[in-house]
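Provenance and format

Records in this collection were gathered into a single text stream. Each protein contributes a sequence line and a token line. The two records reproduced below are adjacent in the stream.
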Amino acid sequence: MTKKWWHDKVAYQIYPKSFYDSNGDGIGDIPGIISKLDYLKELGVDILWLSPCYRSPLADQGYDISDYYSIDPRFGTMADMERLIAEAKKRDMYILMDLVVNHCSDEHEWFQKACEDPNGKYGHYFYLRDKKEGELPTNWRSYFGGPVWDDLPGTDKQYLHVFHKKQPDLNWENPELREEVYKNINWWLDKGLGGFRIDAIINIKKALPLRSYPADRDDGLCSMQTMLKESSGIGTFLSELRDRTFKRYDAFTVGEVFNEKPGELPDFIGDNGYFSSMFDFNETIFGHSEKGWYDASPITPEDYKNCCFASQEKAGDIGFLSNIIENHDEPRGVSRYIPEGDRCDKSKKLLAALNFMLRGLPFIYQGQELGMENLPISSIDEVDDISARDEYRVALEAGLSEEAALKAVAAYSRDNARTPMQWSDQANAGFTEGTPWLTVNPNYTRINAAAQVADENSVLAFYKKLIALRKAPAYKETIVYGALEPVWRERRNLMAYYRKGERTLLVAGNFQREQQEITLPKPYKKVLLNNDKDIIEEKETITLQGYQVLILEM
């Protein structure tokens, strides 16, 4: 593997709307991010990924972009963004923006012009089809529910949107459209961006000609995955994208890729991959059901372990995965992966260590370093997430009671991760002096940054130790590039693995309340990290307490 500048970095995702509000309007903003750069630097992060802050009507929280060259006034100005890039650079930090090019907003100039003249230049920027009464061009189901086709305003045509109806899909088959995309990407990279996180990118390639597939629900529609499995040739688009933009700047890119086809991983993240890295979603998609969230299977500690190891084995020496516990589209990891009733600082630290020491690039989502948890909700009226609201409807139509439907969607709602960052125990968690745009999790008085900064035994302090260990000159080469070898894999609720390179490290976590014993093949040299006060050992046998995790140098 060719060594790259970003291999030894630690990344952090910021959801700007919920990070820190500098002007009291209840919405986080770019000046707010700038004011917290020193907090992030002290934590030890190097790369900051910002979820979209482009101009947008926010139908899907900024993933519907109406102007790729403009910052939304809610978040600040272009001057603020330029200052953020400059201030980050002073601290040896890199800024990533979200690259959302499967679709734009229906308020984008391109779409407006397509409505005016669907047969003209801009009509070819989208997937338009003649409207036929009582018949859709295809029976695909949108990711947010309902058909992917809607009427093109003022015309006798329909347009394709695989997400929200305010997010028309861009026609990547059109080279003129692709040129516009590349021009915009390079414009941002010229401003000094470190790179991009690439959103929903697999969707840019449709199976042509567009056609219907067998329905998989009573609504007569089929999952988008059915079409995507049949599509081919995305590499032509992605290699051109890489060569015309990212490669020229040595930019870091991380792809949101859920479903590459078997054997394609080297194309995506190999030495000359389309992207620098891609997220490991093996754990987040576990238990998914085509019927909906209500039918999803909860993930157990054993499932989590097996998902992590399967991803590590698949990636091997091909390239670097980006490892996550949570992000803006997922519930809080500590609420998802730690069994109910066992959620505490100790188990949160265990989850942190087991994930952070995997081979690949660690991504922290804002508040993860504090152990932020899911949001309790008592009514669907409290839910902002459009995806969760649709899943609630699906659950009711499947026959669940309102109470059961709410419980089913609450576990997976994207609002869980989008609640305001918990900075202190002051009003609104110190996030804003105004009225926050989304409910603050009521546990902010107990879980907040101010309290944890002052506590050497906090979850935040543990994350700082993990990051410091990853960057320590004596261990960096092993943690970044060393092989990962699972050990005692058959042991239930024990997740353990070696990292082998210049040195040999053992990561061992007891993912349950009850004690477990492990017998080492030889004595260890040094304890590098321990989330418990003590180690109970007799010769080479160590008794791991409930949710204890150890990182040992062998």
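Adjacent record:
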Amino acid sequence: MGLTIAQKIIKAHLVDGSMIPGEDIGIKIDQTLTQDATGTMAYLEFEAMGVDRVKTERSVAYIDHNTLQTGFENADDHRFIQSIAKKHGIYYSRPGNGICHQVHLERFGIPGKTLIGSDSHTPTGGGIGMLAIGAGGMDVAVAMGGGAYYTPMPKMIRVNLLGKLSPFVSAKDVILEVLRQLSVKGGVGYIVEYAGEGVKTLSVPERATITNMGAELGATTSIFPSDEITRKFLLAQGREQDFTPLYSDEDAVYDKEISVNLSELEPLAAAPHMPDNIKTVSELKGLKVDQVLIGSCTNSSLYDMLKVAAIFDGKTVDPSVSVGIAPGSKQVFNMLAECGALSKLIAAGVRILECACGPCIGMGQSPNSKGISLRTFNRNFEGRSGTKDAGVYLVSPETAAAAALTGYFTDPRELDADIKSITLPDKFMINDNMVDAPASIEDAKDVEILRGPNIKPFPKAEPIGDTIAAKAVLKVGDNITTDHIMPAGAKILPYRSNIPYLSNFCFTACDEQFPENCIKEGKGIIIGGENYGQGSSREHAALVPLYLGIKAVVAKSFARIHVANLINAGILPLTFKNPADYDKISQFDELQFTDIKNNIINDKPVILKNKTTGEAYEVVPQLSGRTKAIILAGGLLNYTRDNSK
């Protein structure tokens, strides 16, 4: 039986376990990336492991999230990351150099290599045939220290791409169609692999747009073949030596298959407040638009920007629409300036934002109250934009540009613009002067780690005891995101390295009294619905509840990265054996697990007793052999220390 592309990469990197779907595997990691919203904590964890120098082939620290400096906090974090990168063998991408996924694709990604990043959209690297996986900061720290990355062996979904995209229909519409077919839960436990004749019609930036939003499917990662198109992209980046051809075997077996006919696609949009709430742009035609933002790690490539510049050429944005554009990297920004496209954007009245995540992570550009905002981003969760009552739609750059000019949802195919002739250059502008190499091993001894007063120690869990008894301090519904648990935005992100301060905002989107209730009770259990913890990879959504005394989360089902983060933090994740039992628990019911440690060790049924109602429910720990040991040790840091002695 043949292998898929992903299975070939996993097989070549397998250091523990068997490639049986659902069973834990450990794979060697070649590259890591962090960004500044998650990086400070990841590097504090790396320091705690006592490893002098990273053991990966390439680790890169990017500054792209917390770039709005309204106080000393973000600048201090940047300084800390820069100094720790220099000391420990990590490359440092300075603020202004661009968004981590865009820059990594351009300058560091290598087909066939493994990459994990402390950002859920790390699968962008699948656009050039990497096995690129989003993970929590603790997992990245372990990988930098030479440890394997552990994950349940995924199943495989094959997406057959047929035909060719029509003008003004783009890669964003492809992934929105996949989301329409599979939903935000449909990729959980799977790797999505793209195949078929349509693949040959897509450039690397288009492929990267598609793999980027595979995160919204809940998939472990997404991947394209590494083919002649990949080679040409790497050649244009001056990196042809990094090319390796990668294809699935003809007799490879997939667990699920779907098809997308590119020729039949029309412009799509994800309506509020979920990326799988898909509508056609023709359905939305005429809806008034207040804001348009073009950029993010999903759609900020040179290819996207050139198309937008061609649409805006000689025109002016509608006076009722606020329009902002953020190029994805310094390379993109420079090339837009050199070819004259930047002048077209400026002349049209567009606001040029810095090369960073910016509005996507809630760092500025919040829309007006009840505003309709069209964004080329990857998430439209309620309140993520910074305006709770805004309606955020996820669209392609072409659709966004059309609305910017007309003031309304407009099918971009109606525009009078020439974008058919736009192609990628044979050679990109290469200038890595904003990437700092680490100090040599000898010089690293003299590098001082610079810490600001906002950087606080991370909370530490204790080994699990025989009994967990606590109130249900919170009960939430389905599709709770990490934005619900630990919000982002300009007011909160500067405190990513200050868990005590962050705790004041934990779950306040769901229950304003949650932090206060946790402090009052001293400990607690959370009850959740389906797909609990979807969205960002931010481990703060586990570390902050840990700080507030959360001992366990019982849900109908979990998102992949978040359940791993809970285990790494030392919080016990469990699912209801009978989902209907969820309805039988109320907030503040007194709950108890007895003999829990013994039951986990010996795979015995785990019973959750509701002392308030007298009922009992069977629940299933979301643990395997290794993750059992991690929970019993009180989290991954304790486990790593215990096993390195």
